[in-house]
Specification:
There is one protein chain. The protein is an alpha+beta fold. The protein has one domain: START domain (Alpha-D-Glucose-1,6-Bisphosphate, Chain A, domain 4, 2-Layer Sandwich). The chain is 25% helix and 34% strand. The protein is built from three helices and seven strands. The protein has a seven-stranded antiparallel β-sheet with strand order 1-7-6-5-4-3-2, with helices on one face. The longest helix has 25 residues. It is globular and about 45 Å long. The chain starts with 8 loop residues before the first strand and ends in an 11-residue tail after the last helix.
């Protein structure tokens, strides 16, 4: 359980698309692979584990879906089976004019680790790019390749 004193990465952005479309973009492999990672082992489903792959960087992670509330919330365990798993929560708020306010909170960092602040900063920047890429794709149909071009 997270305490108020543990560091978290928090990123928020308005995406001008209906909440059902924005939510689907984060659970549907056909869409999320145009925004974030290039392939995955399947869609997000409650209680299931999924592998996400960034082949360009020879990187991957296993995530486990802890909560999936349609058009409202996604809550996952990140880096399942690692020495330092953490949690990521997306919330989706329906706004006027068919818009969605998306909030991402990455928490559960090992606060005893020397590099905890570097991890929080890296996560904040990474999820900001993911939300920006989602906004560009969902609002304008543009694949920015922003995550692929990060390094």
């Amino acid at each position: 359980m997270d305490t108020p004193h543990q560091p978290v990465a928090k990123i928020e952005l308005l995406i001008r698309n209906p909440v059902a479309e924005v939510f689907d973009a984060f659970v549907n492999p056909d869409i999320i692979t145009k925004i974030w990672f290039n392939r995955c082992s399947g869609p997000l489903e409650m209680g299931k584990s999924v592998h996400w792959y960034w082949d360009l960087y020879n990187a991957s992670t296993e995530i486990r879906v802890l909560a999936l509330e349609e058009n409202q919330r996604i809550y996952i365990e990140w880096d399942v089976g690692s020495d330092n798993p953490s949690n990521v929560e997306w919330t989706f708020e329906d706004r006027a004019n068919k818009a969605t306010y998306v909030s991402v909170i990455h928490s559960g960092f090992d606060s005893a680790a020397d590099d905890v602040m570097a991890k929080v900063v890296d996560s904040t920047g990474g999820f900001a790019l993911v939300l920006a890429a989602a906004k560009a794709y969902l609002e304008h149909g543009i694949e920015l390749n922003i995550v692929a071009d990060r390094f």
